[in-house]
Design a protein that fits this description.
single chain, alpha+beta, Jelly Rolls, six-stranded antiparallel β-sheet, 3 helices, 11 strands, about 30% strand, globular, disordered N terminus
Length: about 200
């Protein structure tokens, strides 16, 4: 049980004891003070994201050789709500795409959910490199810029900045470490969207 919840439950028990204590002549004031403390601790103990923001990582799905180039293909889907922050690929999913190439990224509103606001994503490797071409780590999105849309499905290739040439190129990075999905600027607290990554063995 989270520490914040334990404290709140403890204070609730204290409130109950205080109100039922015949020796307490200031029950009204005591109740008001303790309730104020409980509300304050609740706000501290439960971050804003806990009130709706979430992300659920699915399992790797094997599509076989469905693509035109006949390469073995697998997908990984994330179901997100609000501005969930970062989600690290599970070790189990990583083992299924280790050594494979990330080839395609799709993002679309989740069917039946609340429409999301325009927002952006990063796909970070273990060293903080954005596989979608961000030039400053994970602050200013590039290929992932505003890829989340209220009504439309959008997609992009992985992207890499060639710093010597000062230009960006699309490429298919080999997955050698856990990938972190980072979402920023999602203003709709209950906006629901899906991120689907496609991997190929080459």
């Amino acid at each position: 049980m989270p520490w914040g919840m334990m404290i709140i439950l403890g204070l609730m028990a204290t409130v109950s004891w205080s109100l039922n204590n015949p020796m307490n002549k200031n029950r009204g004031n005591t109740m008001k003070r303790l309730l104020l403390i409980i509300v304050s601790l609740a706000l501290i103990g439960f971050p804003a994201g806990a009130f709706g923001a979430s992300i659920t990582q699915g399992s790797i799905v094997d599509l076989g050789e469905e693509r035109l180039n006949s390469n073995p293909t697998r997908t990984l889907t994330y179901l997100a709500v609000g501005n969930p922050g970062n989600e690290v690929m599970t070790a189990r999913n990583f083992e299924k795409v280790k050594g494979w190439c990330l080839t395609w990224v799709e993002v679309f509103p989740t069917a039946g959910g609340v429409a999301p606001d325009a927002a952006s994503i990063f796909l970070l490797d273990a060293d903080g490199l954005d596989l979608l071409g961000c030039e400053d780590g994970s602050t200013t999105p590039y290929a992932g810029l505003n890829i989340i849309h209220a009504t439309l499905k959008r997609a992009c290739y992985p992207n890499l900045l060639l710093s010597r040439a000062g230009l960006h190129v699309n490429y298919f990075p080999t997955i050698n470490s856990l990938i972190t999905l980072k979402v920023i600027d999602q203003g709709a607290a209950t906006g629901a969207f899906t991120v689907r990554l496609t991997f190929e063995r080459r």
